[in-house]
Amino acid sequence: MLDVKDLRKNYGPVTALDGFSLHVSAGEIVGLLGHNGAGKTTFLDIVANQIRPEAGSVTIDGRKPAKAGELLGIAPQHLALYPAMTVREHLRLFGGVAGLRRAALRSATEDVVTALQLTECLDRHVGTLSGGQQRRTQAAIALVHRPRLLLLDEPTAGADPETRQALLDVVKQQAGDGAAVVYTTHYLPELADLHASVAVVRNGRVISRGTSDELLAGLPSEVTVSFDG
Ligand code: ATP
């Protein structure tokens, strides 16, 4: 589903990606684990066609990122919501942009708000919701059009345990339905919960790949992982 080869990206003198390669199959969850500044968000921005690399290639189900918009569901690290719009209005807007028509949008909205425990928030302005409810709204936007590739950048950052579990359960469900998932986090236990394949990112490239159990047994010494998740 996602095939990334040898990406290179510089920001002026800063090398953000230096030979970043990754393959993610349909139904697979790949966790990206790495320090701040390792290059995870830059990689996701290139896949999402937000920025262009200097070199390397990305294909999403055989398409270039510029032609793959409707295949993608994206939850950015920093919340990108409109405080004066309701949850329903967000889903209508973003589901519509992704091409959902009225009946499909209605049933997709119901499915996604049920899965993310947002039913009671549906007609509330997002600015009045708790941080956890806003996180779940961001995930709902990513999921509403049933994307084939999900890009989730620290989707549980700052989330309460209930929100975190709801998000993890939904991600598992999406992968079970055949979506490919890229999930960045600083919490290895989340990746264990997801039964994810883990790619450790350092200095702009993937330096090792394995299951979370394998990584727990033999993490490279330079990789530090938080266990407070
Ligand atoms: P975090 O876990 O903090 O989100 P990350 O792994 O997502 O980090 P990136 O945000 O991709 O890392 O950053 C990779 C490198 O590129 C860092 O050194 C960062 O400072 C630099 N960088 C990222 N975006 C820009 C930008 N717009 N301008 C200049 N430098 C940038």
Characterization of this structure:
This protein has 229 residues and is α/β, with parallel strands linked by helices. The chain has 7 helices and 9 strands. The longest helix is centred in the C-terminal third of the chain and has 16 residues, at 161-176. The radius of gyration is 17 Å and the shape is globular. The structure holds adenosine-5'-triphosphate. Residues 11, 14, 16, 34, 36-42, 77 line the site of adenosine-5'-triphosphate. Keywords: Antibiotic resistance, ATP-binding, Nucleotide-binding, Transport.
**Percent of residues in β-strands:** 25-35%
Overall helicity: 25-40%
Q: What structural class do you assign from the helix and strand content?
A: alpha/beta
Order of neighbouring strands in the sheet with most strands: 5-6-7-3-8-9
- Radius of gyration over C-alpha positions, nearest whole angstrom: 17 Å
Distance between the termini: 29 Å
Bound molecules: adenosine-5'-triphosphate
H/E element string?
EEEHEEHHHEHEHEEH
Stretches with pLDDT under 50, minimum 5 residues: none
